[in-house]
């Protein structure tokens, strides 16, 4: 154990805590610069040409990676979207499917959006969403005619379905007509009157008495 009482007196010959923090930040920057120069070029061997998703790949997943925060609470979250028209369902089956998903259906974009963050591992959330979609599709194919008379409740999307009001063109202010205005300018005549006043100096009389 270090005995503080026996420490030598500080001679100001070492760096401060702030100085060590600056050096540590510089080391981290140089480490990433070395990776950029020597490690990133090796990734060219793994480059693959882009291939657009096929017709069978209808599920789109989105996840967020927070750089520098591997244990961020929102990092495992996965969001899945799917176009309703791309699902292998008939019209009655699609109607039942929309009844099952409820407010997760966006009637404007014609998409179903679901998210999952139940598990700490992101891959498990991917799997849960994929399995849930398979269960919904299988359930929608079971006797879809039994719920064909049940209407869709889209009140949750009333705000998005509400038409945008526009200002009527008939209410616009008419364009102003260019009218020539004739003005008569009268130049006033200024008469200067000079008054001369005579200033009379007072007379002072001094009398001497013998």
Automatic annotation (TrEMBL):
Q: In the UniProt record, which is one GO cellular component term? A: mitochondrial small ribosomal subunit
- Please list the GO biological process terms of this entry: mitochondrial translation
Q: Which InterPro entries match?
A: Ribosomal_mS35_mit, Ribosomal_mS35_mt
One GO term in the molecular function aspect is: structural constituent of ribosome
Query: What positions does the domain Small ribosomal subunit protein mS35 mitochondrial conserved occupy?
Result: 49-172
Tell me the PANTHER family matching this sequence.
Answer: MITOCHONDRIAL 28S RIBOSOMAL PROTEIN S28, SMALL RIBOSOMAL SUBUNIT PROTEIN MS35
Q: What is this protein called?
A: Mitochondrial ribosomal subunit protein-domain-containing protein
Q: Which organism is it from?
A: Lobosporangium transversale
């Amino acid at each position: 154990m270090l005995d503080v009482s026996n420490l030598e007196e500080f001679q100001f010959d070492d760096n401060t805590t702030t100085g060590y923090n600056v050096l540590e930040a510089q080391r981290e920057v140089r480490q990433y610069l070395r990776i950029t120069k020597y490690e990133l070029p090796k990734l060219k061997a793994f480059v693959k040409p882009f291939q657009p998703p096929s017709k069978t790949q209808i599920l789109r997943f989105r996840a967020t990676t927070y750089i520098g925060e591997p244990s961020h609470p929102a990092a495992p979250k996965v969001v899945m979207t799917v176009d309703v028209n791309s699902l292998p369902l008939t019209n009655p089956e699609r109607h039942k499917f929309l009844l099952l998903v409820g407010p997760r259906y966006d009637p404007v974009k014609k998409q179903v959006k679901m998210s999952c963050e139940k598990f700490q591992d992101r891959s498990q959330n991917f799997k849960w969403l994929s399995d849930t979609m398979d269960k919904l599709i299988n359930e929608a194919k079971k006797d879809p005619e039994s719920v064909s008379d049940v209407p869709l409740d889209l009140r949750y999307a009333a705000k998005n379905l509400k038409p945008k009001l526009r200002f009527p063109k008939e209410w616009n202010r008419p364009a102003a007509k260019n009218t020539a205005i004739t003005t008569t300018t009268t130049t006033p005549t200024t008469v200067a009157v000079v008054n001369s006043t005579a200033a009379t100096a007072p007379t002072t009389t001094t009398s001497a008495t013998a």
